[in-house]
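Example (one chain per record):
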Amino acid sequence: DGCPSDPACTIVIVKPRPVTVAANNGPVCLGATLKLTATPVVGGTYSWTGPNGFTSTQQNPEIPNATPANAGAYCVTATLDGVTSLPSCTNAVVNDPPAVSITASKNPLCGTETATLCGPDNAGFDYLWSPGGQTTACITTGTAGTYTLKVTDRRTGCSNTASIKLEVRPAPPCK
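Predicted structure:
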């Protein structure tokens, strides 16, 4: 009837939205540990989601023995005092190592013969033979033993190895 009501009051509390930023240690090589990180929110809790059904509540989860199924976008939110951050995402890359095989020009060898051992020939690869320490795609040897080649892809940093056993038979008679 034209009469004002008693004043009503309420208290509004505005809580700040937490902020966290996702990152990872990639690109990683197949079989390495993929490490996800979120910037800290003191007193906060975390929720991660990612490829292949990945979930975690850790601030900095790790995925051991990474495979191509682990590659993709990982997103995290942080919650503090009932307020959840906007999602932050990071893209993880899992690289395959180079395919490595060794061919021998001849095996077994007879007496003082030599063989050329070769790995994959690629200008983007680094090579390391053991024993010997040679750093070329191919080596020539006449010594029996097991030869191992480590190949590293310079583009990805991923490595792989292969071995071959070279046999030397006494001369003569060789068959």
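Caption: The chain has no helices and 18 strands.
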